[in-house]
Amino acid sequence: MGFATKTKNMVDELTGAAKERVGDVCGDERLRVEGVRQRGDARARQAREERAERSDRGLDRTGAR
């Protein structure tokens, strides 16, 4: 996973967390839910990328003998 992808996922996660907190403070349920969803999407993308990276490393080790 590249630096740009990791950075985008982290920015999306932090933006989602900020939206969630602002929604809580202001009583804006739509904004809070949007933040929760954005954080969840970013975490899911990060997990997929990490799983693919581990899989690629595993294939490299077995196939590079």
Structure overview:
The chain has 2 helices and no strands. With 65 residues, the protein is mostly helical. The chain has one domain (3-63). The two termini are 23 Å apart. The model has no long low-confidence stretch (mean pLDDT 90). Residues 35-65 are annotated as: Disordered.
Overall, the morphology is: elongated
The fraction of residues in strands falls at under 5%
Number of domains: 1
The first-to-last residue Cα distance is 23 Å
Biggest sheet record: none
Poorly predicted parts: none
Mean pLDDT: 90
Structural class: mainly alpha
Overall strand count: 0
Count, helices: 2
Rounded to the nearest angstrom, the radius of gyration is 16 Å
What level of helicity do the residues show?
over 70%
Order of helices and strands: HH
Protein name: CsbD family protein
Organism: Salinispora tropica (strain ATCC BAA-916 / DSM 44818 / JCM 13857 / NBRC 105044 / CNB-440)
Concise summary:
InterPro entries: YjbJ_sf. With 65 residues, this protein is mainly alpha-helical.
